[in-house]
Amino acid sequence: MVRLEKRPQPSRAFSWATPILAVIATMIFGGLLFAALGKDPVASIQTIFWEPLFGDFAFYYRPQLLIKGAPLVLIAIGLSLGFKAGIWNIGAEGQYIMGAIFGAAAGLAFYPTQSVFIFPLMVVAGAFGGWIWAMIPAVLKVRFGTNEILVSLMLVYVAEQFLASMSLGLLKNPEGFGFPGSRNLQQYASAHNGELIAGSGMHWGVAAALIAVIFAYVLLTRHRLGFAIRVTGQAPKAARFSGVNPTRLVLFCMGVSGLLAGLAGLFEVAGPAGQITIDFNVGYGFTAIIVAFLGRLHPIGILLAGGLLALTYIGGDIAQSQLGLPAAAIQVFQGMLLFFLLAFDLFTQFRLRFGQAEVI
Amino acid sequence: MKLSTLLTSAALALGVAGGAYADAHEKTKVGFVFVGPVGDGGWTYEHNQGRLAVEKEFGDAVETVFVESVAEGPDSERVMTQMALDGADLIFTTSFGYMDPTINIAAKFPDVKFEHATGYKRADNVSTYSARFYEGRAIQGHIAGKMTKSNIIGYIGSFPIPEVIRGINSAYIHAKKVNPDVEFKIVWAYTWFDPAKEADAAKVLIEQGADVILQHTDSTAPQAAAQEAGNVITFGQASDMAQYAPSPRVSSIIDNWAPYYIARTKAVMDGTWESKDTWDGIGAGMVSIGEISDAVPADVKEEALALKASIADGSYHPFTGPLKKQDGSDFLAEGETADDGTLAGMNFYVEGIKGDIPK
């Protein structure tokens, strides 16, 4: 008989090994899935993981990893602070949208004036947009005790409607022949979040993501607030006794995660995406939740996890085109990653015991 | 310093490699970028049928590749670049939202031809193409006007953009022509494909008395809702949706991209491809009218087919005056037809339609 026994202490070794085991298991079972679809499993896995990094056109795909990974990391870093403290902001997608709308609107308000002050103003507006959208569930939680998971999630759909309205109305390109979508910020020099070094993929969003990683690392390991976050997550009562103010912690964690999601939206709309359109959001806010957990809620881990997920997206698209793998199979493959992560996570807290349970 | 030098040379190589690889193979390689899954049963499904038709037509002389469910924006730029790097000669980008990305990537790969569906931006190596769906809407409007008993026709709009507004106007004009008492109720779903929302919209319209549902969204959910309600008819959109025939689905507008895709691939193979704007309708076969089922009386069917024939041979234009705009101002004088520019940017209802276009 096999049974699970709770470990007296969570296993540190397993905590670190889990993501690696999850990736290996995903490769094995993903390979089986691809084989079942009649595709060469080794070639498929190789295309997904190897091609973007070391293939013939790696010079193009490597910068794309930064472009795809930056918003994921930036959002996930913000979410991880709250998640560590047991504050669940599930609505980063909405905050990402609002950041993009506020930021783009701030820039477009000055069109066609050129000024060095426009982009910084857009950054502030984008951060504010994300922050204020996250403040709604935060304030409702601390004031009326509402559930932040539900409120923040529902506000995603509100933000999506708002996005559609903006694309069709207020922010619609006046020279767009009545079609939805704003002016393209890539063609408005003062508002364009372009590459810092040509061909590198480095834009201000990538820089911001790296800064956020360092900021979060220092906060969590060196700052009193980071201590408060960790204690609240592990032992809420102890946290109260040690003088942590739960209200302020909720406002801080929700605020920072909203702010970073808003920044991610702004950098995306001003750079790689260029436009506010009805379908501007592509799920970064939700995928970032996976990234946060895949990265063990640790800043460095999140950086690696963001890179890994970006890799599966880019490699997945290459595999679709080169090998004819259906998009759904790639999505299952990505889903497996989270599934195996959670499955192996069990062994951090529990261990397998074989044989009869001892009578106590 | 070293890193930046490396990256700059890589960036230069991008242009060079694209050119070199484009000629390093014999088969003509055609790429398709799809916004939805190929199994959506509507928009993307029909584009994929076009792709399969190209494969069938040219056999071993072509190789087609596709990526489905590609988000508009940077993801689509990456997928297009990847296809170009992998040696595609011709790339079809099949959603309006791919417009700026297509133009961006086309500038980086001057030797690769691009075809963008439903947009208005062209370049030396970017053509645009779209279908005159409003021609099909005229036939739907005619059948709808004849068939309705409650004189209330429901219309599920996707987004209030010229394409959709044109369809509403065309259907209304022709419904009104055969039934002066007809009234249109329009619900905006703000989606192209969302079965749950479309079903809700259909139910709301049926509750308000509509016994004909027209839709500019791609799922079969309105058909299912109509079947449940009974005595409500619908029309297939983008695809035939024949599984709901003979009723509630009494006819359909089908996007038929195959002739265009074959012609353009041929042009690339022959070296005769050039940038142009194509806007074809029933006449050229880009818009097909699905079988009108037996649920429609024979005389109505005959009239509808006559209307179709007159549109196909060009003797009748669905937007022919006298027509007024909703606010009562003049739109088209007696015998005048709408020019393509007006149609492309149509942002007003014709006289008689109630309600405002959402802003």
From TrEMBL, chain A:
UniProt KW keywords: Cell membrane, Membrane, Transmembrane, Transmembrane helix
Protein name stated in the entry: Sugar ABC transporter permease
InterPro entries hit by this protein: ABC_transp_permease
Tagged with keyword Transmembrane: yes
A Pfam family of this chain: BPD_transp_2
Molecular function, one GO term: transmembrane transporter activity
Transmembrane segments: 12-37, 65-83, 95-111, 117-140, 149-171, 202-220, 249-267, 273-294, 301-319, 325-344
Keyword Iron: no
Membrane topology: Multi-pass membrane protein
Compartments, as annotated in UniProt: Cell membrane
One Gene Ontology cellular component: plasma membrane
Coiled coil: none
Major subcellular site: membrane
TrEMBL record, chain B:
Any GO CC annotation of this UniProt entry: plasma membrane
Domain ABC transporter substrate-binding protein PnrA-like: 27-310
Entry keyword annotation includes Signal: yes
Origin organism lineage: unclassified sequences, metagenomes, ecological metagenomes
PANTHER family the record matches: ABC TRANSPORTER SUBSTRATE-BINDING PROTEIN
Protein known as: ABC transporter substrate-binding protein PnrA-like domain-containing protein
Keywords assigned: Signal
Source organism (scientific name): marine sediment metagenome
InterPro entries named in the record: ABC-Purine-Binding, PnrA-like
CDD domains, per the entry: PBP1_BMP-like
Keyword Magnesium: no
